[in-house]
Structures are given as C-alpha cells and as structure tokens.
UniProtKB/TrEMBL annotation:
This is Lysophosphatidic acid receptor 3. PANTHER family: G-PROTEIN COUPLED RECEPTOR (PTHR22750). Residues 49-295 form the G-protein coupled receptors family 1 profile domain. Residues 317-356 are annotated as: Disordered. It comes from Ameca splendens. SMART domains: 7TM_GPCR_Srsx. The chain crosses the membrane at residues 34-58, 70-90, 110-127, 147-169, 189-213, 239-259, 279-297. It is a multi-pass membrane protein. It comes from the Eukaryota.
C-alpha cells in the first residue's frame, strides 16, 4: 500500500481514484436526465443573460466607465461559469469514472477559473468603488488603459489558480494526500484555495464597511444643505448598492462550499462532505443565474438597455424572416404571369405614406 501511494498513476482513469475515495456515481437515469434538462435551461439563461449584459455595456455610451467595464468582466466570468456547468453536467454521474486525468483537470479547471475570475472581479470592483467614493464621485478616474490592465491581471490570476493542480499540485504521486471531493486534488491545495478565498471575502467586507462609515460621516456633514444637494451628493452610492447585493449573493452561495472544501482539506473524517457536493453545485449555478438579474433589477438604465437590445434582436429576426419569404422562389403551381396586381387598398396606403 505504501508503494502504491508513493508511485505516480498518470495512466490510470478516474475510476481508480474514485474507488480510493469511496465515491459512488451510479445515478438513476431519469434523475440524471432531469438534472441535465433543468441544468441546461439554467445554463442557457446564464449564457444569454450575461451576453446581454456585456452587449449593453458595449452599446450604451453611458456605461463606458470603469465600473461598468469591470461589471461586464464579471458577466464574462459568469458566462464562462455557464460553459463550465454545461461541460460538468454532461461529464458527471456514470461518466465521471471514465474520464481521463486530463479531462478531469479540464472539467474542474473551468469551474476554478470562473470562480477565481468572479472573486477577483468583485475585489477589483470594491477597490474601484472605494476610490470613487473617497473622491465623492460617481465614477473613478481610472483610465481605460488601467482598466484593461486590471482585466488582464484578473484573468491571468484566474487561469493560474485554475491550472495549478494540473501543473503539479495534485495527489497523483501521493495518494494518501488525496481529497474526498476531488479525488486527484491534494488536500493542501483545497486548504490553500478555501483560505485564500475567505481572506478575499474578509477584505471586501472590510472595504465596504469603510465605505459605509465614510458615507455616513459625509452625509451627516451635508445635513445643513438642501435636500436636492444631499440627493446629488448621494449619487456615488447608487452604484454601490448593485455591487453590494452581488457581493452578498456571492457570499451566500459560495461560503458554504468553501467551508466544506476546508473541512475536506483538513481531512475531517466525521464530515460527510461528499453528500454536500451536489448542493454546492446547485448554489454555484444559482449565483450565476442571480447576477444578471441583480444588474437589471438594481440598475434601471441597464434594464432599459437590455430591453432595447431584445427589441432590436426581435425586429431584426422578423425582418430576416420577411426577406427570406420575399426571396422564396414561386411554387410550380404558381404562374408568374397570373400573379394578382397590387390592390387598390395597398396603392392607397402607399400614396398616403408618400404624402405624409
């Protein structure tokens, strides 16, 4: 047994590692089908809704500010999460043990990258809000170049965090250090992952508490001004409400999962972490579903832009159908020479439109 634990097992399938962890993957086919159908509907919503958020930021010039660029980047991370969930749903259950080590790393890596990107984006947004509020402005003075560099930094860190296990921080050569939830991930990596994310959570909460204390003090100082002046001074706070709701949803959906990963990382034998795995995935999907809803609900301008985009898409689809119908060739039973002339009613409508 000691020799098996010290040797590497790169040529094994995931069945070997699942057997060691004691995980069972036999699911009822009807239940698996239901999960895939319902999950696919949610994933389609995640993909479409986040595409609309990104498109709204691109098309509306009122959103061409650092906060909204970062918000669009957060939507991009949720879009990636939707792709990761689709890949996971159709590579789970009885399929999981048949995966190769590389395929398993790809499956988990997509999830880890999307989560890291979401968390890093929320931290950067918190810092951007801190800068803007401390200057009592609606938007910070970050240039487009700096915002672009921040976005590149976010994705660089996220890709690194998601690919660390495949680059060597795993238990393929040390089976005794394997986790229960992720059979080829080292428990030490799960401890690092969960603790680092919790530290970022605490940092973001501290930033927003600092913002709240500053705003409360600033508002008290402005009480001698007129109500319209106070309303104008409160304008920078409106965007904070959106991101605080997003942060709250993220904490609710991901904190339980991080706690479970931490328990698995410290090798808690009395904790049945494997039973909580499905609940963690459900909460993760719910978070990606909630975010675009929060954007549109808390920001009227965003919702108006998204509705206009949907109208444009609907009108464009109808025009394409009309064009295809007009370009359709006549059936064999139709005689082009006997086609009816334009009716008097249509001629009248044409004349009225020209006169008008």
């Amino acid at each position: 047994m000691a020799q098996e634990s010290s040797s590497c097992h790169y040529n094994e399938t995931m069945q070997f590692f699942y057997n060691r962890s004691g995980q069972r993957h036999s699911l009822d086919k009807s239940l698996l089908t239901l999960v895939q159908v319902v999950g696919s509907i949610f994933c389609i919503f995640i993909l479409v809704a986040n595409c609309m958020v990104i498109a709204a930021v691109i098309t509306n010039k009122r959103f061409h500010y650092p906060f909204y660029y970062l918000l669009a980047n957060l939507a991009a991370s949720d879009f990636l999460a939707g792709i990761a969930y689709v890949y996971l749903m159709f590579n789970t259950g009885d399929v999981s043990p048949t995966l190769t080590i590389r395929e398993y790393f790809l499956r988990q890596g997509l999830l880890d990258i999307s989560l890291s990107a979401s968390l890093a984006n929320l931290l950067v947004i918190a810092l951007e809000r801190y800068i803007s509020v401390m200057n009592w402005k609606v938007h910070s003075n970050l240039t487009k170049r700096r915002v672009t560099l921040l976005i590149i930094l976010v994705w660089s860190i996220s890709v690194f965090m998601g690919t660390v296990p495949s680059m060597g921080w795993n238990c393929i050569c040390n089976l005794d250090s394997c986790s229960q939830m992720a059979p080829i991930f080292s428990r030490s990596y799960l401890v690092f992952w969960s603790v680092s994310n919790m530290v970022i959570f605490v940092a973001m909460v501290a930033i927003y508490m600092r913002i709240y204390a500053y705003v409360k003090r600033k508002t008290t100082m402005l009480m001698s001004h007129t109500s319209s002046s106070i309303s104008r001074k409160r304008t920078p706070i409106k965007l904070i409400k959106t991101v605080m709701v997003v942060l709250g949803a993220f904490l609710i959906c991901w904190t339980p999962g991080l706690m479970v990963m931490l328990l698995d990382g410290v090798n808690c034998r009395t904790c049945d972490v494997k039973k909580l795995k499905s609940l963690m995935l459900l909460l993760a999907i719910a978070n990606s579903v909630m975010n675009p809803c929060i954007y549109s609900y808390k920001d009227e301008e965003m919702w108006t832009t998204i509705k206009n985009l949907m109208r444009c898409i609907g009108n464009g689809t109808r025009r394409q159908r009309s064009t295809r119908a007009n370009a359709r060739p006549l059936n064999s039973d139709q005689d082009p020479g006997t086609s009816p002339p334009a009716s008097d009613e249509m001629k009248t409508d044409d004349n009225q439109s020209l006169d008008s």
